[in-house]
């Protein structure tokens, strides 16, 4: 919306304040500045507000707004007077306004830093979180305009109003003056306010996905009149799955006399349906989608699944159509899956929704699946079905114009029917948020991710998101830091998902191997070593082993305290005639399940070769085999009866033993405050729950963490694999994840000493000076002295370096620094290239320095080309490199490696997201392959790793505090047995890039 000429020309309309938000009930709304064009909307809005709400707003009966009021509330300068509105369908449902005031409470201009604030929410929309969303956005606007405090006058009886401010998490002061409560709110964000904000975001976004997956009614728009076609296929799948809600077929081309189609009501438009439809599946050509969306919005549809293609995957014109589709849907408060989607599935018994093109609805299970590719979605559904695995939910997001993997993580975090979340992603719209959500979700349930388009450096067609330039290995390391199980292929995703969904997490890396094939056991043993596990020597049961032998051996292995997991290998028995006999896999499966059920909770995986029915029987919830009077061996030979019935209940999945069952403190909800309900009132509206006869508990500021303990007992499924490598790789991922869970139970922290030895204000002032009033968007590199000064503000000393343009200057520099010294060339093509002869060390006197200077200039060129410098020698140690940089997509990344060939040639570099904790720093230096060099490899002296960890934390703090620091390279950092020395540093400053994970919550616009 554009400003009118009546508004101050020097205060342009702030379109960056516009935002789409998800409200508490999962619907969407738009927040935008109020303009002079909104007079009629404001009057209409006010007429729909109750007298009680008006009284709380104005402290007196106020039935209607005067012309002067309307003018005042619609004319803003966007600096000292600001008004925001929440709209749905173009109409106001809530407003907020602030007016800058001075110490006496009178209207003022900058530099006054206090403002009076007031809210009003339409009664019909109270209870949806409108006021809390408005408070977040108006506070951000106020901070941008230099306002640091909000003041509000509240009637004493309006306790709910007071709670709105209190529950926001900001620091506040309260006093009673002249018959009203005076509130002052400090707008500086706090850990508590951030936790409140993220908790509300989590609940709202999870609810928005839940509304899509559990509708009470579904309309398929574009259902064909004849069998076949996308719409008719979805309708058929809905009916075949036994959807528990109401289903409608909609097509404007239906004959007027057509009453039903495939047994469901048929209509020409949504307006003909007597009830409100919750979910619409749109399967019409792209040019007809806007008409269908408008019909949905006007008739109260809550969400859309758009199967139609012809959008961003077709190029720039299609991308603009896609953006307009999202704008249109959100204007009506609807969220979208798609366009170009494959559909959604929810197997819950109370829903049974298959609104997809999948011909067969998967069995009910504990795996949630999200994919950005329809083709990959088909492959995953098929693979899971073949392996006997069930799903709790499935979303194929297509072009992912709205609902994304982040939304799915929000939903999975709360969904009690999901134990494992699997995601196939081709792009990350908000990587920082993804990492935060994945870390929180992974603290209570596994998150397995396959990332497509890893090496192309571009996004797939239809995905308009920032392109990350960091290497894929870095992306993988950062995901693992967040607890994400990153695998390379969809096959590995299914393998890991089956194990994690059906088996408890291992307590450690010790693996027992048993089976009836020595060769297969040895292959499994080798695979375990290659994956970093600690296998015990394989136990060969011989090819004559019966199911009872397998059961006894598995029970013994599970009872062994030196074993954390078991891998069973099985091949068909070879008969006396030399022919392989596949035997009865169900008998062996029953034996293995019986042993697993009776032993300690440890993960079990099976590697088998062509044993008919084994995988299916292991995957089954209970045995379907008929009871046998004489159980047989794999080849059908008589054997002793098993010690337990075939259908014995197997072990259930559990969380890791010991620590690791709690979510990290970072999780949303750490604040533990409550969010009140909304009642329109003076200076703020509190939200009320409009449930007759019931009282809804106050909403907590943070999301209650799902229990990370043992899930309800249910038949376990032992995963079976056709190759040893696949089973072992899945087990190795479970081991690493379980270790992360145990560590995440006690999160790392930033040591307090950093607060005492850093000069954040001084660094900020220096950065402002260096960037200037009109900084170059491309940024600027700092000189050596400028970099030393900035790093010194954070306790990172850089060894002095003096220029040596000629031999005399070199000698003078050495005399100033003190011998011994080093002579180094700093030309870009020679920097850090000691192998080319550009670095001479341990020069103990003037003669040695002059000889070295002559040799270097004779060998490599003139001093003006070489840019030689002199530096005092540092204590001997291990040469390392520490870097920090900001990637447009991933955010700030801290990196560490050994200098030279290990990091530059072999890529042996470790990475962590900023801000780094003490645990991150410790893990960072230990996660490179060459780490033993730091800890006394081959008899060398261990170096001062605590000093190195402190350096990493200081650099992390610098780039986190000052986003203008877009890159830092400390090279070389010599780590000695006592202390370390930073020999060189390069720093680049630039205007800070936008941060999509900070500020008030808002939906992204792709």
Walk me through what this model shows:
- With 1006 residues, this protein is an alpha/beta fold.
- The strands form eight sheets. An eight-stranded mixed beta sheet has the order 1-2-3-4-5-6-8-7, with helices on both faces. A seven-stranded mixed beta sheet has the order 11-12-10-9-13-14-15, sandwiched between helices. A seven-stranded mixed beta sheet has the order 17-16-19-18-20-21-22, with helices on both faces.
- α6 (191-213) packs across α11, α16 (547-559) runs parallel beside α17 and α23 crosses α24 (846-860).
- It is flat.
- Residues 1-10, 621-704 and 709-715 have low confidence and may be disordered.
Keywords:
single chain; 1006 residues; alpha/beta; 8-stranded mixed beta sheet; 7-stranded mixed beta sheet; 21% strand; flat
Topology:
Elements: E1 19-22, E2 28-33, H1 39-47, H2 51-58, H3 67-74, E3 81-88, E4 91-101, E5 114-121, H4 130-144, E6 149-154, H5 159-166, E7 172-177, E8 180-186, H6 191-213, E9 217-221, H7 230-241, E10 246-250, E11 260-261, E12 264-267, E13 279-282, H8 289-298, E14 303-306, H9 316-331, E15 335-337, E16 343-346, E17 353-356, E18 364-371, H10 374-386, E19 391-396, H11 405-414, E20 420-425, H12 431-442, E21 447-451, H13 472-481, E22 485-487, H14 490-502, E23 510-515, H15 518-530, E24 534-535, E25 539-540, H16 547-559, E26 565-570, E27 573-574, E28 580-581, H17 585-598, E29 604-608, H18 614-619, E30 674-675, E31 699-700, E32 720-721, H19 724-744, H20 753-757, H21 760-771, E33 780-781, H22 784-792, E34 801-803, H23 807-817, E35 821-825, E36 839-843, H24 846-860, H25 863-866, E37 868-872, E38 878-887, E39 891-898, H26 901-904, E40 909-913, H27 918-926, H28 945-961, E41 965-975, E42 980-982, E43 985-989
Parallel strand pairs: 5-6, 9-10, 9-13, 10-12, 13-14, 14-15, 18-19, 18-20, 20-21, 21-22, 23-24, 23-25, 23-26, 26-29, 29-32
Antiparallel strand pairs: 1-2, 2-3, 3-4, 4-5, 6-8, 7-8, 11-12, 16-17, 16-19, 27-28, 30-31, 33-43, 34-37, 35-36, 35-37, 38-39, 38-41, 39-40, 41-42, 41-43
């Amino acid at each position: 919306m554009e400003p009118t000429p009546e508004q101050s020309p020097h205060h342009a309309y702030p379109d960056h304040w516009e935002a789409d938000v998800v409200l508490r009930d999962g619907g969407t709304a738009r927040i935008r500045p109020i303009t002079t064009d909104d007079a009629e909307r404001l009057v209409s809005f006010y007429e729909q507000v109750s007298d009680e709400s008006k009284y709380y707003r104005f402290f007196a009966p106020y039935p209607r707004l005067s012309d002067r009021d309307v003018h005042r509330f619609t004319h803003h300068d966007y600096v000292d007077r600001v008004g925001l509105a929440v709209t749905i369908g173009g109409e106001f449902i809530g407003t907020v306004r602030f007016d800058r005031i001075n110490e006496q409470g009178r209207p003022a201009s900058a530099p006054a830093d206090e403002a009076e604030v007031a809210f009003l929410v339409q009664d019909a929309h109270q209870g949806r979180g409108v006021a809390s969303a408005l408070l977040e956005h108006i506070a951000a606007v106020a901070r941008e305009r230099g306002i640091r405090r909000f003041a509000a006058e509240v009637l004493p009886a309006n306790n709910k109003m007071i709670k709105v401010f209190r529950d926001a998490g900001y620091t506040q002061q309260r006093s009673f003056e002249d018959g009203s409560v005076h509130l002052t709110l400090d707008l500086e964000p706090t850990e508590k306010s951030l936790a409140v904000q993220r908790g509300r975001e989590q609940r709202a976004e999870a609810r928005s996905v839940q509304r899509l997956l559990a509708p009470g009614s579904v309309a398929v728009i574009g259902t064909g009149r004849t069998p076949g076609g996308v719409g008719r296929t979805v309708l058929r799948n809905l009916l075949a799955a036994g959807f528990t809600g109401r289903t409608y077929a909609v097509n404007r081309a239906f004959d007027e006399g057509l009453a039903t189609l495939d047994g469901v009501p048929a209509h020409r438009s949504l307006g003909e349906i007597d009830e409100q439809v919750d979910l619409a599946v749109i399967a019409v050509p792209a040019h007809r989608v806007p008409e269908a969306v408008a019909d949905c919005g006007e008739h109260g549809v809550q969400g859309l699944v758009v199967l139609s293609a012809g959008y961003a995957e077709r190029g720039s014109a299609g991308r603009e159509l896609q953006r307009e589709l999202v704008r249109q849907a959100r204007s009506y408060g609807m969220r979208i899956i798609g366009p170009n989607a494959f559909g959604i599935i929810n197997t819950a018994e109370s829903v049974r929704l298959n609104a997809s093109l999948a011909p067969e609805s998967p069995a009910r299970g504990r795996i949630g699946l999200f994919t950005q590719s329809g083709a990959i979605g088909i492959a995953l559904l098929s693979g899971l079905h073949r392996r006997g695995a069930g799903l709790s939910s499935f979303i194929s997001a297509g072009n992912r114009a709205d609902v994304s993997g982040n939304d799915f993580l929000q939903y999975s975090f709360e969904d009690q029917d999901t134990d494992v979340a699997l995601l196939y992603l081709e792009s990350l719209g908000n990587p920082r948020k993804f990492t935060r959500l994945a870390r929180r979700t992974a603290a209570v349930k596994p998150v397995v991710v396959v990332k497509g388009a890893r090496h192309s450096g571009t996004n797939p067609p239809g995905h308009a998101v920032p392109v990350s330039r960091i290497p894929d290995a870095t992306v993988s390391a950062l995901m693992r830091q967040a607890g994400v199980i990153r695998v390379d292929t969809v096959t590995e995703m299914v393998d890991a998902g089956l194990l994690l969904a059906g088996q408890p997490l291992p307590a450690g890396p010790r693996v027992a191997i048993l089976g009836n094939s020595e060769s297969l056991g040895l292959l499994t043993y080798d695979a375990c070593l290659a994956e970093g596990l600690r296998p015990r020597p394989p136990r060969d049961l011989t090819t004559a082993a019966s199911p009872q032998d397998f059961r006894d051996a598995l029970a013994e292995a599970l009872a062994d305290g030196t074993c954390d997991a078991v891998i069973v290998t099985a091949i068909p028995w070879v008969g006396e005639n030399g022919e392989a006999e596949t035997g009865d896999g169900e008998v062996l499966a029953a034996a293995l399940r019986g042993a697993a059920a009776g032993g300690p909770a440890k993960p079990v995986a099976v590697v088998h070769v062509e044993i008919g029915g084994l995988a299916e029987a292991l995957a089954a919830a209970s045995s379907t085999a008929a009871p046998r009077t004489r159980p047989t061996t794999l080849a059908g030979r008589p054997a002793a009866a098993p010690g337990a019935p075939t259908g014995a209940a197997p072990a259930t999945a559990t969380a890791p033993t010991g620590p690791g069952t709690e979510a990290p403190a970072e999780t949303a909800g750490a604040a533990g405050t409550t969010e009140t309900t909304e009642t329109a009132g003076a200076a703020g509206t509190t939200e009320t729950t409009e449930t007759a006869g019931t009282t809804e508990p106050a909403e907590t500021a943070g999301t209650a963490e799902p229990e990370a303990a043992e899930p309800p007992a249910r038949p376990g499924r032992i995963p079976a694999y056709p190759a040893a490598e696949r089973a072992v790789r899945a087990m190795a991922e479970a081991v690493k994840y379980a270790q992360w869970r145990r560590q995440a139970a006690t999160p790392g922290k930033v040591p307090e000493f950093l607060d005492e030895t850093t000069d954040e204000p001084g660094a900020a002032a220096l950065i402002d000076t260096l960037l200037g009033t009109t900084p170059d968007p491309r940024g600027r590199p700092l000189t050596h002295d400028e970099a030393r000064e900035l790093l010194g503000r954070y306790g990172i000393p850089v060894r002095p370096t003096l220029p040596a343009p000629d031999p005399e200057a070199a000698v003078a520099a050495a005399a100033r620094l003190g011998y011994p010294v080093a002579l180094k060339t700093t030309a870009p093509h020679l920097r850090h290239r000691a192998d080319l002869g550009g670095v001479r060390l341990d020069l103990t006197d003037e003669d040695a320095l002059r000889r070295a200077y002559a040799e270097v200039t004779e060998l490599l060129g003139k001093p003006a080309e070489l840019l030689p410098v002199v530096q005092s020698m540092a204590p001997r140690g291990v040469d390392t490199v520490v870097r920090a940089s900001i990637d447009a997509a991933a955010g700030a990344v801290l990196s560490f490696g050994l200098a030279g060939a290990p990091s530059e040639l072999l890529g042996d570099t470790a990475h962590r997201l900023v801000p780094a904790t003490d645990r991150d720093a410790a893990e960072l230096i230990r996660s490179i392959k060459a780490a033993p060099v730091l800890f006394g490899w081959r008899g060398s002296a261990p170096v001062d790793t605590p000093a190195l960890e402190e350096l990493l934390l200081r650099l992390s703090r610098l780039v986190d505090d000052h986003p203008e620091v877009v890159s830092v390279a400390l090279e070389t950092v010599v780590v000695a047995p006592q202390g370390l020395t930073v020999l060189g540093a390069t720093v680049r400053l630039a205007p800070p890039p936008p941060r999509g994970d900070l500020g008030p919550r808002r939906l992204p616009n792709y």
